[in-house]
Design a protein that fits this description.
With about 210 residues, the protein is α/β, with parallel strands linked by helices. The protein contains 6 helices and 14 strands. It has a 6-stranded mixed β-sheet, with helices on one face. Strands 7-8-9-10-13-14 form a 6-stranded mixed β-sheet. A two-stranded antiparallel sheet has the order 11-12. The longest helix is centred in the last third of the chain and has 12 residues, at about 170-180. About 45% of the residues are buried. Bound molecules: zinc ion (ZN) (2 copies).
């Protein structure tokens, strides 16, 4: 079974997700937002092994916990990121723009590509490149479970901001039209902020999409 443990962490209430194939104990962290120790402790409590860290994008509030996750895990899990977000990663995810400093953790060593398939135990996740909020933003889609981890592309009743460096409103809308709204209505959307929603709900109710 695919188990999904959400956490709300850090100064801007970012959703981090610890997910696992509970039959094998293989786990990954999607967007270790902050307080990596809390995430690692939860994995240990469940007997899960964190095999990698998948980043939807390189904003600081989605990766500030990566250093701690790596420090507390042996071996430290490799970090996966789309190369178009490496400049942002190297700039501490934009933290200095908000008057903060963070340790971005281990350098990403897995280059994410559109259409790539990531494996977690028995589950496959398709990487979809969805630029607009940042140039290298991706989402992780598991078709068998009907769930997508969509970072800051779309939220319940809202869409990602495009006013930060590298943002593009046109690209964001194209990403949403091409790679979110083409999914089945029942697909669960687990965003980087706020509550869970579905593709169908957003198709009908999201004021930014009409
Ligand atoms: Zn962001
Ligand atoms: Zn965010």
């Amino acid at each position: 079974m695919l188990e999904i443990i959400p956490f709300v962490l850090g100064p801007v209430q970012t959703n981090a997700y610890l997910i696992a194939d509970s039959d094998t104990g293989a786990a990954v962290v999607i967007d270790p937002a902050w307080d990596g120790d809390i995430i690692v402790k939860e994995a240990e409590r469940r007997g899960w092994r964190i095999g990698s860290i998948w980043l939807t994008h390189a904003h600081f509030d989605h990766l500030a916990g990566a250093a701690q996750v790596a420090d507390l895990s042996s071996p430290p899990p490799p970090v996966a990121l789309h190369p178009d977000d490496y400049p942002l990663w190297r700039a501490q995810g934009g933290a200095p723009l908000f008057g903060m400093r963070i340790d971005p953790g281990p350098e990403p060593t897995i280059d994410l590509k559109h259409g790539q398939i990531l494996h977690l135990g028995a589950y496959d996740f398709e990487v979809r490149h969805t630029p607009g909020h940042t140039p290298g933003h991706v989402i992780f889609y598991c078709a068998t479970v009907g769930v997508v981890f969509c970072g800051d592309v779309i939220f319940g009743g809202s869409i990602g901001r495009t006013d930060l460096p590298g943002g593009s409103y046109e690209s964001l809308m194209h990403s949403i039209d091409s790679f979110i709204l083409t999914l089945p209505d029942a697909t669960r959307l687990l965003s980087g902020h706020g509550p869970e929603t579905t593709v169908g709900e957003e198709r009908l109710e999201n004021p930014f999409l009409t």
